[in-house]
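Posting this for the archive.
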Amino acid sequence: MYITNTLTGKKYDIKMGTIPERKFFRVSNGWEAGAIDKMYFENEAEYKLHRVLEDNPRLTSHRGVLISKVEMLGRNWESFQDWVQDPTSASMSF
């Protein structure tokens, strides 16, 4: 089975259980019954964004923009969290 990025859906030509798998940020999926055992991300910021999108379905319309800005969000995580809680009062611009 090949690795697929859980956030972006990008498929990699790297098999699960191989040494190159270690370059990915891996998380065990323990909260979704019947889901895959491991989730793969390129970095921790992608994982954090995945959790925010899962926990806040109202952000689905912003998914593409958020994914394209994941590096910036990772560097400004606290500001992003403030924006998620209240988009009208936080000073986050994309």
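The first strand starts at residue 2 and ends at 4. Residues 7 and 50 are 6 Å apart (CA to CA).
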